[in-house]
Amino acid sequence: MKFYVCIKQVPDVDAPIQIKDGELIQDTDRMVLNAYDASAVEEALVLKEEHGGEVEVVLVGPEKAQETIRKALAMGADKATHIATNGDTDYDSATYANILATFFSDKEYDVISCGKQSQDTDAGLAGSMLAEHLDLPYTTNAVGLEAEENTLVVKRQGDAGQEIIGLPTPCLVTCSNDMNEPRIPSLKGIMQSKRKPVESIDVGDLDIDESKLQPKTKVTGHMEKPEREPGQKFEGEAEELAQKVATLLDEEENVI
Amino acid sequence: MSTLLTHIAISDGKIKRSSLEVLSHMRQLAEANGHTAEAVIIDAEASNYVDEVKKYGPSTIYTVEDPIFENHMNTPLLKALSKVMDEADPYIVGFGSTESTKDILGALAANQDAAVLSDVSEFELTDAGIKAKRPVMAAKILSDNIAEGDTILVSVRSGSYDLDEADAEANIVDIDFSIDDSDVQATLREIIGASGDKIDLAEAETIVAAGRGAKDEEGQDLINELAAVLNAGIGASRALTEAGIMDPSLQIGQTGKVVSPQLYIAVGISGAIQHVAGMTNSKVIVAINKDPDAPIFDIADYGIVGDLYKVLPPFIEELKKIKG
Ligand SMILES: Cc1cc2nc3c(=O)[nH]c(=O)nc-3n(C[C@H](O)[C@H](O)[C@H](O)COP(=O)(O)OP(=O)(O)OC[C@H]3O[C@@H](n4cnc5c(N)ncnc54)[C@H](O)[C@@H]3O)c2cc1C
């Protein structure tokens, strides 16, 4: 099976966050492989181990994102393509999907996978946009993958329960981070990753209409979330407290 | 005058409350800006839900009824929505941010060449489009966003808007729909847990969340009983998922699910920042904890300082009485 996994470099959401004049100050020393993409890489590697094939990662991003490509290669991906953007970009999900759709237009593959969302923006749009552009059967929010002859069997978390979906290949799937524990690269993996092929293409070299690189949505600022104020705290005899709060929830809040 | 169209999501035979919240807000926006609010129901038995949707005042309700919509499948839903959009020519299409919505929103935007903002916590109309706030960076901060264009899709987190009824006569338009089997390449093989016994935390109106304080069998029994009385989803802190007491999919927090129910009851949970990140958007938070200094009390609307084993039995009894 030929797997392409789309990955992204994102800021570590656990790093301290600063906002200055509405701008998010990101600690560029703490950029990481998007956690959902890491699950997609892991799952592709597991399927490759079971069924054979090849895992190639594709990343759209600046020069610095090379380190994230190396991480995926160190986990065990066979090769990579870096679609290089120059410096500051205000790409939205649609621009990423347009770039990737152009890249994939002349490629052969069984499965394209990616994280179900990016951990910094939590948008969760690019995957299904890409599937629509490529006219591929797809599903999102996978929590388990299995391969059959010419079919990818996806367990996804839906509204009414978990849905088991059969997707004929070629297809696209977006992965939740509930599905596995991504492996930590071994020293050997890290050494080997240095010799693995990384092809670099400039976004400008892709045959893509300039208008498709113009985002339709923009982030115009950031702000702290308003803090919740502490409410009423009750101490005393258990039965009395239970009664009091149940009544408040019913009569004051109307949430029972 | 433009059309603000709301998609009414149905799951397990019920209208998703979040879509009625969106419809309520869209109708208010329409009234304030001289637009019209309309709704679309796509389901195997779409007409069954018309009366309920009418209560929220859309001037037109489109129905797309076909057996294929009995279960969620993205291709038919996409095709139906595209068809309705061709018919209604909406300026804004609003969705509750359900799993089914998340499955199609990007594809629909690509298909319709529309601008799209997902999972917003509030939005308003501007001259050129919409302005919206979205929680980002694991819901730690809010971002301001704009989306511009002739057609804009927006999905809204549950609990962002209150329900607002405004009964009016609605014009019902049935949209003729059929789909070729060959157009639907994906096959739905099975649904696990579709009986409605497992409540989807992301959409749950009420959540009872258990922490380390309720880790023994007696504690878990009380949690289950409380959840049953309230018809609530059950969530957990990482202390319980890591200990293997609760399934990892039930973890709420930064690395777990982000939820926004009407009522969140935290039982025996200290209120670590990583847990709070996932539940701070709840409308009403109740905390039960024996430590009067537990940080959870800093964000709880109602705090009960006490031993959960003593507090929960009379609390459950009282709720039973109220629910009658
Ligand atoms: C990177 C990272 C990510 C994390 N992500 C998450 C996450 O997504 N979700 C999450 O929940 N945590 C997460 N955590 C863990 C988090 O920091 C806390 O350790 C965890 O939330 C604690 O769970 P707890 O409140 O159940 O347990 P504790 O902190 O042990 O608190 C138990 C509470 O129960 C009370 N209690 C005990 N007995 C009783 C009784 N009989 N009656 C009443 N009250 C009682 C105690 O007073 C105490 O306040 C994360 C941590 C890290 C480092």
SSE blueprint and pairings:
The complex is a heterodimer of chains A (256) and B (324).
Chain A: E1 2-7, E2 9-11, E3 18-20, E4 23-25, E5 31-33, H1 35-51, E6 54-61, H2 66-75, E7 79-84, H3 93-104, E8 111-115, H4 126-134, E9 138-148, E10 151-157, E11 162-168, E12 171-175, H5 187-193, E13 198-202, E14 217-224, E15 232-235, H6 238-252
Parallel strand pairs in A: 1-6, 1-8, 6-7, 7-13, 8-12, 9-12
Antiparallel strand pairs in A: 2-5, 3-4, 9-10, 10-11
Helix pairs in contact in A: 2-5, 3-4
Chain B: E1 3-8, E2 10-11, E3 14-15, H1 17-33, E4 36-43, H2 50-54, E5 60-65, H3 74-88, E6 92-96, H4 99-112, E7 115-120, E8 122-125, E9 129-136, E10 141-148, E11 152-156, E12 171-174, E13 187-192, E14 206-210, H5 217-230, E15 233-236, H6 238-242, E16 263-267, H7 273-276, E17 284-289, E18 302-305, H8 308-323
Parallel strand pairs in B: 1-4, 1-6, 4-5, 5-12, 6-11, 7-11, 14-15, 14-16, 16-17, 17-18
Antiparallel strand pairs in B: 2-3, 8-9, 9-10
Helix pairs in contact in B: 3-4, 5-8
The structure holds flavin-adenine dinucleotide.
Flavin-adenine dinucleotide is lined by residues 211-213, 237-239, 251-256, 268-270, 272, 274-275, 278, 288-291, 294, 307-309 of chain B.
Top keywords for this entry?
heterodimer, A: 256 residues, alpha/beta, nine-stranded mixed sheet, two-stranded antiparallel sheet, 27% helix, globular, B: 324 residues, seven-stranded parallel sheet, five-stranded parallel sheet, binds flavin-adenine dinucleotide
Q: What does this protein structure show overall?
A:
The complex is a heterodimer of chains A (256) and B (324). Chain A is of the alpha/beta class. Chain A is built from six helices and 15 strands. Chain A has a nine-stranded mixed sheet, sandwiched between helices. A two-stranded antiparallel sheet of chain A has the order 2-5. Chain A starts with a strand and ends with a helix. The model of chain A has no long low-confidence stretch (mean pLDDT 94). Chain B has 324 residues and is of the alpha/beta class. Chain B is 28% helix and 29% strand. Chain B contains eight helices and 18 strands. In chain B, the strands form four sheets. A seven-stranded parallel sheet of chain B has the order 7-11-6-1-4-5-12, with helices on both faces. Chain B has a five-stranded parallel sheet with strand order 15-14-16-17-18. In chain B, strands 8-9-10 form a three-stranded antiparallel sheet, with no helix packed on it. The interface between A and B is large, with 79 and 94 residues. β14 of chain A pairs antiparallel with β10 of chain B. Flavin-adenine dinucleotide binds next to α6, α7, β17 and α8 of chain B.
